[in-house]
Amino acid sequence: MSSTPQEHGVGLAPLRQRKERRYPTPPDGVQTDAGAPIRASSLWRDAWYRYIRNRAAVIAGVAFLVLVAYCLIWPIVSPYDPYAVDFSQASDGPSLAHPFGTDQFGRDLFTRTALGGRVSIGIGFAATFVILTIGVTYGAIAGFLGGFVDNGLMRVLDALYGLPYLPFAIIVLAIFGGGNFWTMVVALSIASWFTTARIVRGQIITLKENDYVRAAHAVGARWLRVLGRHLLPNTLGVLVIAVFLELPGVILGEAFLSFIGLGISPPDASWGSMAQDGYRAYRTAPHIIIVPSVAIAYLILCANFIADGLRDALDPRTRET
Amino acid sequence: MTRLIIRRVLWTVPVILLVILMTFLLMRQIEGNPFRHSERAIPESIQRNLEAKYGLDDPWYVQYVRYVRDVATFDLGPSLVLRNRDVNDIVREHFPPSLELGALAMLFALVFGIPLGLLAALRANKWPDYSAMVVANVGFAVPSFLVATLLIYFFAVRWGDIFDVPTSGWDTWQSKILPTIALGLGPMAYFARLTRGSVLETLQQDYIRTARAKGLRRRRVVVVHTLRNSLIPVVTAAGPILGFLITGSFVIEQIFAIPGIGRYYVTAVTARDYSVVMGLTVLLAMIVIIANMVVDILYGILDPRTREAR
Amino acid sequence: MSAPLLEVRDLRTHFFTREGVVNAVDGVSLSVDRGRTLGLVGESGSGKSVTALSIIGLIPKPPARIVSGEVIFDGRDLTTLSERQLEDVRGERIAMIFQDPMTSLNPTLTIETQLVETIRRHTDVPRREARRRAIELLDEVGIPNPDARIKDYPHRLSGGMRQRVMIAIALSCEPDLLIADEPTTALDVTVQAQVLDLLDDLRREHDMAMIVITHDMGVIAEVADEVAVMYAGQIVEHASAAALFARPEHPYTEALLGALPQLEDHASRSGRLTAIPGRPPSLLDPPPGCRFAARCLYAGEPDGCAEHPPELRELRPGHLVRSEHPASERARPREGAPA
Hints:
The complex is a heterotrimer of chains A (321), B (310) and C (339).
Chain A: H1 43-53, H2 55-77, H3 109-145, H4 147-160, H5 165-176, H6 181-190, H7 194-208, H8 211-218, H9 223-259, H10 271-280, H11 287-314
Helix pairs in contact in A: 1-11, 2-3, 2-11, 3-4, 3-6, 3-7, 3-9, 3-10, 3-11, 5-6, 7-9, 9-10, 9-11, 10-11
Chain B: H1 2-29, H2 44-53, H3 60-72, H4 87-122, H5 127-141, H6 144-158, H7 177-203, H8 206-213, H9 218-247, H10 250-255, H11 261-270, H12 274-302
Chain C: E1 6-17, E2 20-32, E3 37-41, H1 48-55, E4 64-73, E5 76-77, H2 83-89, E6 94-97, H3 101-104, H4 111-122, H5 127-140, H6 146-149, H7 159-171, E7 177-181, H8 189-206, E8 209-214, H9 217-223, E9 226-231, E10 234-240, H10 241-246, H11 251-257, E11 313-316, E12 319-321
Parallel strand pairs in C: 3-8, 3-9, 6-7, 7-8
Antiparallel strand pairs in C: 1-2, 1-4, 4-5, 9-10, 10-12, 11-12
Helix pairs in contact in C: 4-5, 5-7, 7-8
């Protein structure tokens, strides 16, 4: 078995499957309790209701969607060309014409931020997707097959944990000879999928040992069916949470790499490259670096609250009083 | 207990071998070698001589074995790009600042983060909790280059007359303040959140109720019973964080002009200075591995249940 | 006759939650004399644990609060004490043990630490002396090799042993009153009897009063001198154990004892719960009348049980009942009741 302590946090206890249930009508003369009627709901609807009740999570969800919408739509409708240089407008602070101001080349920051957002968020999601794919595959194989295979895979994973994340990303970028969208995706995901693999494996093992899975199996359900109806739906919750947990790390990774010049480079816009531009002018026009940084912070905050909300919604036992 | 430690230590060996192997293979994927891509045009014949001298024309597995042997004897080889300089020298000169920065940032994060989280948990859902968590969330989300920039902007540019804090170099203790804060703020926030969650969860446990039923003073219940058990996940997270701090300090080093290995690393990779890259990567990996190992051991100390689990 | 050691008067503890106010304990009065054992029996959710926790002030303060009532212990009203003063009472004068020994001990501290810290908290003895006393206590509760086991961590002990350790901790400062919340519920059947015997013996030796909370009538039969039956946050019957088993009055008690007339042939006082159809009322919105009315075999239209809550009245000296239809006042089963 794995030799490192168990993860704290994301591993969920198995959720109970609830089917629509109708309570038997009581015999005459005996009343049921004086309370409200009971409504049986499905698993996901329950989770949805719980999520909605969490104000911070809802706000974060909406804020996130607003951000994505902004990044997708604004560059299309914006009157400004994000690449057009116009020194007469350089380094202007925020104003009505330029809500975020302009950078030292006179480019409208409001538009560039949206454009940069496409790249940064895009890389974020793409890399997260890759991380999940590799992680889930690895973890599922280990957890499902168990025994010798599991042991071996986990040993290898323990070894892989020793790989330093950022240096390897840098090397990978060097291999590809530069930073663009896809190279960044690979670079950022190559050394980040280990935690996901471990979590998935843990979840699958917990579920496999769970009583109702054993019961299903005992009744004769074949493994594929068990997989489809019991294991995967429950793992899905963990995965959705994992997406929002990995996202901040990847976004920051992209920002850092671009900032030190290895990732997306100017004039292409990503939040990291914009920060690099802004850094050079921080003395006179600090807003140029503040804008993309705040955008990054905004995204990370949203992702955190969404992840927290999802975690509470899907496993109420972790809720704090 | 000692068995646990020995086993952990032994485990690091294959891991390091694997790291060397992977770095090695990856580096070889990069087109060219330092001589072909050097800025000064080197004549073909000299190129080949240099390659032979550094053994670059041997097959990769030969190079690999030779390298492993060298590492075992702590010889990281000469720099291929900078003549007359050994990787070991580079390490000796530039590694301590990075290490120190990482350690200081970690200390900062723990010393301020854990009490913050504890305070928030003990006054849960009241004002101290809300404000502490706002600070923590913001500190966690804001990228460190912004923190660094803002710190420099305010302390050096705006209020330069009041505070005399240097913003570059790594010599005086004053010069270490800003970089430490910039690098440590994120982890501090992370620890605060983690501690808060963990303490809240621990407070729900039955044994806390027992401790109170015994009439123990509140302070003892908090410190001895609650905090000790709550720190377990914090300790678990601290290992990877330490690794992250040391390896991820590249940005901070650049901004504060700290002569650490961060800057060297980037230039070495682009110049295809194999030995420097290899040496530094191996070194960084070892730090991460050792950090994880220490965490594992600490975990065993903190939670007696795991000592016999294997 | 001396004053009772503990007297609870009209205690009301409410939980203020987002969904509303839960009247978990709604007007509970009871008393325990020195050296006697009171059994507090009822199903889950009846409020018995909350009552116990309210006595020593361990209810979770944000959602819960003692709304009214008094808890007079040895002349002082505990509900008026500050937290610090309560800390002095807990462990030293009133001790409490809980249901699940697996989770009630701190897994990261040795048995020794958990015992010694209690002793040194309330008495002024040096560590070595405290340790010696701890070993003595372990021996007294029946742990073999106490000087070796004292260094163990809780996870090395079985459930029964852990509960014994809990008892040792509770006894360590010679409390006047021991509250045992479901002390045997989480244990194996074979161990249950041992632990109950141990509790009874210790109580006699140390001349302690005891409150035993349980849902199991068998436990009551074993150790209780007096019994209070709780239902939906209220005491519905209070009598000496002998009287309760001989002549139960409240319909709920009868059901608990399985002594309803129509089940005479099955009735053996094995203390098994008969399944009573229906469920306890929600305490968020308690019914206006008698809380048991919905499940009572004797409640009906004309007697107004559903509208007017019955008071706790003394049917016989020492035997209190909260019901309009106590057994001794029933003429005969109503028409329509199961034969």
